[in-house]
């Protein structure tokens, strides 16, 4: 919840909600999650949380803007839902369906390794520089 996480303490009374301030290492939090959600309404960066969830092999539900620019396909490596009801329904479906959750998570991890590993990024960057140097 960022540097002013105390603003969200009222939400703690809700079932299953933990509000964190600064977290030095997010990996253990991802590892404890069954489903990671990215319900952003506007894409304003590199969508690192989506990439982190994929790298840690977690099932993911995102809005279109939450995974914009990553080339992900709904139903293959992520569930993409833009309305509140559809988004919530996708989360519940994955929470209740362990095999579907695992398959989505595995596919997300494969894409993270193939497309977003540093060696894959470096190869694309080198190709871009070669093309620009022509």
> Could you give a short account of the major beta sheet?
3 strands, parallel
Overall geometric form: globular
- How far apart the termini lie comes to 46 Å
Name the structural class: mainly alpha
Describe this structure in words.
The protein is mainly alpha-helical. Helix content is 46%, strand content 7%. It has helices spanning 27-32, 48-55, 84-96, 98-116, 118-133; strands at residues 35-38, 59-62, 79-80. A three-stranded parallel β-sheet has the order 1-2-3, sandwiched between helices. Helix 2 (48-55) packs across helix 4 and helix 4 (98-116) runs parallel beside helix 5 (118-133). The radius of gyration is 17 Å and the shape is globular. The mean pLDDT is 88.
What is the element layout, followed by pairings?
Blueprint: H1 27-32, E1 35-38, H2 48-55, E2 59-62, E3 79-80, H3 84-96, H4 98-116, H5 118-133
Parallel strand pairs: 1-2, 2-3
Helix pairs in contact: 2-4, 4-5
């Amino acid at each position: 919840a960022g540097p002013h996480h105390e603003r969200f303490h009222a939400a703690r009374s809700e079932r299953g909600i933990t509000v964190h301030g600064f977290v030095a290492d997010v990996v253990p939090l991802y590892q404890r999650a069954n489903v990671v959600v990215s319900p952003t309404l506007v894409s304003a960066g590199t969508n690192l949380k989506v990439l982190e969830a994929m790298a840690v092999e977690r099932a993911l539900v995102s809005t279109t803007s939450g995974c914009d620019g990553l080339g992900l396909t709904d139903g293959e490596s992520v569930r993409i839902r833009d309305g509140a009801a559809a988004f919530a329904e996708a989360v519940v479906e994955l929470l209740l369906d362990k095999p579907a959750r695992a398959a989505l998570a595995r596919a997300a991890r494969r894409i993270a390794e193939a497309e977003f590993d540093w060696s894959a990024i470096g190869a694309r960057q080198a190709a871009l520089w070669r093309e620009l140097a022509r």
